[in-house]
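The material for today's practical consists of a large collection of protein records. There is nothing in a record beyond a sequence line and a structure line. Backbone structure tokens are a discrete shorthand for how the chain folds in space. Nothing more is needed to start thinking about how sequence determines fold. As an example, a complete record with its sequence and its structure tokens follows.
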Amino acid sequence: MNKLIIILGLLLGAMTAKAQFAFNGQHSYDGEHKNELSGYVMGGTNVVCGGFGGLEVSYRRHFDDHWHAGVEAQAQFGKQLYSADVQGGYHMKFGWSDFFLDGKFVYNKYHQWNAKETIGNLSLMWEMPYFYLRVGESLIHYKVNSLGYTEPLTFTFGFGVNIRPRWYHWNLGLFFRNHDDFYYENWNINWGLHFYTPAPFIKNAKLFGEFNIRPAGSMSQLASKYETSGKLGLKYVW
């Protein structure tokens, strides 16, 4: 009887480890597919420019279960915003937790106002089966024509929860954060909903999407809506 219990325990542990390894951590290496290519279309409305739309594409390479690097590019029409970044990071697993130390350098150009923004960010993310927490710091430099200004410390934070564990093949969750793919701000927080699910008829691919509301002055008494937007994309691994 004791031997049977031990064997069943080992089988259950192996199944759990396999499930975790296949879908473990946000963008972590699954042990088989080292390359990730993703893109999304986006659209929304902003109080400054009105309606806008855009496209984003990104590539990430996993060198092993710990190290990764990648690049992203984006164009937002309406805002006349063009962005690119390079990034790299280190992944470490401890029990049910995944830890990600990520560095990113972002370049944004607001073509209509001849404004440029460069951002250096370093963040640590802790991810558990049902939630994640991200904290970090950013250095942001703005330049409009010949005038420039630097914010030496901009606190980065984010939190999200899912209704299913992260290794499940589909999921739905809520988030709030003061950053997005190409911007980092102090106290303008995105509140939103995200999902992912296997892509129909495409092996090794999944659909993902996001809806978020970005209030103006969301950490103060103001509640006016600054921006509402949505994303719908596809991620493919090989």
Notes: The radius of gyration is 20 Å. Residues 3-25 have pLDDT under 50 and may be disordered. Helices lie at 2-22.
